[in-house]
Design a protein that fits this description.
five-stranded antiparallel sheet; four-stranded antiparallel sheet; 8 helices
C-alpha cells in the first residue's frame, strides 16, 4: 500500500492535524533560518542594536500572523465563526490576560517613543541596568548584580525613566557620604583625587574620560561627595566592575587619613 493510499484512508481530522503539524514545523524552521539571516545581515550592515531589536520584534509578529493564517485555512474556519467568536476571545483576554495585552501595547509604545534604546544604561524607577532587549512583553535589563531582569513594559511606562547614556558613553553618578572628621579640602585633595588619579591610570583604556568629583551637599551631620565616571556605551559589565573598585579605593584612603 502506497503512502497516497494510506493518506486517502485517514479521517479528515487526522489529515488536518498532520497538515497543521507539517505547516507549523515548516514555519518554525523558516523562522529560525530567517532569524539567523536577519541577525547576520544586521551585523554586516552595522545596524544599531535598537534597530535590530525592532526588526526582530516585527519579524516575530509576522511569523505569528503567518502561523495563525495557516491554521485557519487548514481547518477551514468560516469567517462568520471567526468574527462571532472574537467577542468571546476578547472577553477572555480582557479578564484572563489583560496584563499581557497591556504589556504588548506598552512594548510598542516604548519602541515608538524611544525613551531609551537597546544598549542604553537607564534607571527605571528604583531599577537600573543596561537595556539588552525590548520584547513584546518585557524590557530586559542587565543589572549591577550581573543578572538579567525582565521588567514588564507596563511598569516601564508607569515609572520615571532616567537615561544615563548619551554622547556615546554612560555618565554614571554615585555619591559617597563623609562625616566632619576631615575637612572638605582634605577629603577632596587627599582621599578622592589621589584615588581618581590612580584609578584612571590603571583603567585608562576602559574609560572615555577621567572621573570627576564634586561636593554635592553638606549639613551638620556630614557631607556628600558626588562622583561621576564615564564608560563607553554598551559596556555595563565594565561599569559594574569599576564603580565598586573606585569606591573602595576612595574609602581606603579616607580610613587611612582619618586614623593617621
Amino acid at each position: 500500500m502506497s503512502l497516497l493510499d494510506i493518506w486517502s484512508q485517514l479521517p479528515p481530522e487526522a489529515v488536518k492535524l498532520l497538515q497543521s503539524a507539517v505547516g507549523m514545523a515548516a514555519i518554525f524552521i523558516a523562522y529560525k533560518y530567517l532569524s539567523r539571516l536577519l541577525t547576520r545581515t544586521g551585523k554586516e550592515a552595522e545596524l544599531e542594536p535598537h534597530a535590530m531589536n525592532a526588526a526582530r520584534l516585527v519579524f516575530r509578529i509576522v511569523a505569528i500572523m503567518v502561523a495563525s493564517t495557516v491554521l485557519l485555512r487548514v481547518w477551514s474556519l468560516p469567517t462568520d465563526w471567526f468574527v462571532g467568536s472574537s467577542a468571546l476571545i476578547g472577553a477572555f483576554l480582557g479578564f484572563g490576560s489583560s496584563q499581557t495585552i497591556n504589556n504588548v501595547v506598552a512594548g510598542f509604545y516604548v519602541l515608538v517613543t524611544q525613551p531609551f534604546k537597546v544598549k542604553d544604561y537607564v534607571k527605571i524607577g528604583d531599577l537600573e541596568g543596561q537595556v539588552e532587549e525590548i520584547t513584546i512583553n518585557y524590557t530586559n535589563l542587565y543589572t549591577p548584580t550581573f543578572n538579567l531582569l525582565k521588567v514588564p513594559n507596563t511598569q516601564v511606562m508607569n515609572s520615571r525613566i532616567l537615561n544615563l547614556t548619551h554622547e556615546g558613553f554612560i555618565k554614571y553618578t554615585f555619591t559617597v557620604g563623609f562625616g566632619h572628621e576631615l575637612s572638605n579640602r582634605v577629603i577632596l585633595d587627599e582621599c578622592i583625587q589621589p584615588a581618581i588619579d590612580e584609578f584612571h591610570e590603571r583603567h585608562a583604556d576602559e574609560q572615555l574620560r577621567k572621573p570627576e568629583a564634586y561636593l554635592e551637599t553638606g549639613d551638620r551631620l556630614g557631607k556628600v561627595i558626588l562622583i561621576r565616571i564615564f564608560i563607553p556605551k554598551g559596556e555595563a559589565k565594565t561599569l559594574h566592575v569599576l564603580q565598586p573598585e573606585l569606591l573602595e579605593m576612595i574609602m581606603e584612603r579616607w580610613h587611612a587619613r582619618r586614623n593617621s
